[in-house]
Amino acid sequence: RKTAPLPDDIRGMKGGTPIVSLTAYTTPMAKMMDGVCDFALVGDSVGMVLHGMPSTLGVTMEMMIMHGTAVARGLSKTMLVIDMPFGSYEESPQQAFGNAARLMRETGAAAVKLEGGQHMAETIGFLVRRGVPVMAHIGLTPQSINTLGGYKVQGRADQAKALMADATAVAKAGAFAVVLEKIPAKLADAITAQIDIPTIGIGASAGCDGQILVVDDMLGLFTAFKPKFVKRYGSLGEDGEAAIRTYAEEVRARSFPADTHVFSDKAPGN
Ligand code: KIV
Ligand code: NA
For 3-methyl-2-oxobutanoate, which residues are the binding ones (predicted)? Predict the structure, then answer.
């Protein structure tokens, strides 16, 4: 395709070829996935992955805007979605609209993502009616880690009904897609069959309408820990460590820089 899909195009992929997505935080990473992924998410995981924060709770609007602007510069054929950070939308639909509009205006993102099910449905409807396409995010919602009591699987046993209700509530409110994070595969399949918007799985099911992973996780670049749902498709962290060690050895041995990396005193020439 020549241009990026729009939220409505992503919605239209329900039940078809799986939707492919990754997180992105920088221009070069965005360029790597441009035209390959259907959408890229500037996730608030940026706080943990790039800034060494212990959770996503410390991420600010300014950080999201800075990374969102960088990612936008690398995309022309992939849609940009940006996370609303903790504290920027929960207070009221009005607060959410002000911050969503700012994120879209300053980064060029086509849509925002926010965490929460039934309790965020009113806000989702408020945003959508005012021109802000919303991707919902239910199941394990990392911004609520302190009330959830850890990064555990959500929606098991007696929690399943509430999670199904969350999914139907965000779909009814007008979300164009919903991320399902760390829930039983059977429940993810039941939700996917039940609602008419695409489900984007992360630790959910191959039966979801799409998948997302944190790009630094799947490249093997973020190695502080590895959730079960992550598959490493590369080992850039190991490659990087090895490259840095080789560089250090060569500098200490004076074998870098070599003749090809230095300049003669004769101009013109290299
Ligand atoms: O912030 C993030 O990376 C996310 C994805 C894991 C869905 O919200
Ligand atoms: Na997130």
Answer: 44-45, 83, 113
**Degrees (nearest 5) of the Cα angle 34, 36, 37?**
85
R_g of the chain computed on alpha carbons: 21
> Which residue minimizes the CA distance to atom 2 of ligand 1?
43
3-state secondary structure of 43: coil
Share of the chain above pLDDT 90, in %: 95
Please state the atom number of ligand 1 nearest to the C-alpha of residue 214.
3
Q: Which pTM does this prediction carry?
A: 0.97
**Active-site annotation holds for 181:** yes
Q: Is the peptide bond preceding residue 5 cis, with omega within 30 degrees of 0?
A: no
What are the chain's domains?
Answer: 7-234 (3.20.20.60)
Any atom of ligand 1 within 6 Å of the Cβ of 214: yes
Is 70 exceeded by the pLDDT of residue 7? Answer: yes
pLDDT above 90: residue 270: no
User: What was the ipTM of the complex prediction?
Assistant: 0.99
